[in-house]
Amino acid sequence: MNVAVIGSGTMGNGIAHVFAQHGFTVALIDISQPALDRALGTITKNLDRQVAKATLSEDDKTTTLGRLKTYTSLEAGVAGAALVVEAATENLDLKLQIFRDLDQYAPAEAILASNTSSISITKIAAVTKRPQQVIGMHFMNPVPVMKLVEVIRGYATSDAVTANVMELSRQLGKTPTEVNDYPGFVANRILMPMINEAIISLFEGVAGVEEIDTVMKLGMAHPMGPLQLADFIGLDVCLAILRVLHDGLGNPKYAPCPLLVNMVMAGRLGAKSGEGFYQYTAGSKELVLAERFRK
């Protein structure tokens, strides 16, 4: 089966990796060839890690890489795809344009899936002539490790397409969970208010960054505290999802904390910018509190 993945960033290259490892022929598509080259480097590095842990053989690594081909042309990349997974930036206008183009270029029978973490599948599907074939496949980061795929049915998504995507997710070794199309779906409707409340607790002086994360790690058995997790996700992404929740549900409890808004405006986006609630240095795994939040 041929699969096309649009976007070669963290989520896109992870999705491409998992499909290729499980026997699918994958077209990885991005407008930037250097970005595609970096993605292949990341996939190779992650496969090497699996080989080192003896969870994958060297032959399997070579076979997996052989199933991947890169494209800078959307039309060429999706030409033979039975499934397209869009994993571009979490921007509504961009996604709508991609799906308009997919409707034109992808085979008529192809399933069109979005990895969006919060944007309405129904709204995305409405710009196509095949809304029954549009669905959400929300993978978790890091894709090769995390087991969940949140499968989101749009208003018009067919039973057959949903069943097909659930089965494809199982073939990847994932656990698919079907949810309906409402703002934030399930994962982010629950996660983002928790992260926002952690930021509000910091903003109001209830406790410091490390104290808040320690309470949640040791008291609630979370592997990562909410503020560190926000850095990992990207504070801009957290803000965008909270705004989708706030706008879509109209409930003030989803209003993003002013501290989060200010940090994003200041370019403190978390791990990807080098600073959020913590500071990040390339090659270092030490967790260092950002200077602003030191006592």
From TrEMBL:
Question: Which keywords label this protein?
Answer: Oxidoreductase
Every copy of the 3-hydroxyacyl-CoA dehydrogenase C-terminal domain together lies at 184-280
Q: Which GO terms describe its molecular function?
A: 3-hydroxybutyryl-CoA dehydrogenase activity
Which residues are in coiled coils? none
Q: What is its EC number?
A: 1.1.1.157
**Annotated InterPro entries:** 3-OHacyl-CoA_DH (IPR022694), 3-OHacyl-CoA_DH_CS (IPR006180), 3-OHacyl-CoA_DH_NAD-bd (IPR006176), 3HC_DH_C (IPR006108), 6-PGluconate_DH-like_C_sf (IPR008927), 6PGD_dom2 (IPR013328), NAD(P)-bd_dom_sf (IPR036291)
Pfam families registered for this protein in UniProt: 3HCDH (PF00725), 3HCDH_N (PF02737)
TM ranges: none
Q: Where is the 3-hydroxyacyl-CoA dehydrogenase NAD binding domain?
A: 2-181
Its family remark reads: Belongs to the 3-hydroxyacyl-CoA dehydrogenase family.
Q: Under what name is this protein listed? A: 3-hydroxybutyryl-CoA dehydrogenase
User: Which species is this UniProt entry from?
Assistant: Hymenobacter jeongseonensis
Q: What is the lineage of its organism?
A: Bacteria, Pseudomonadati, Bacteroidota, Cytophagia, Cytophagales
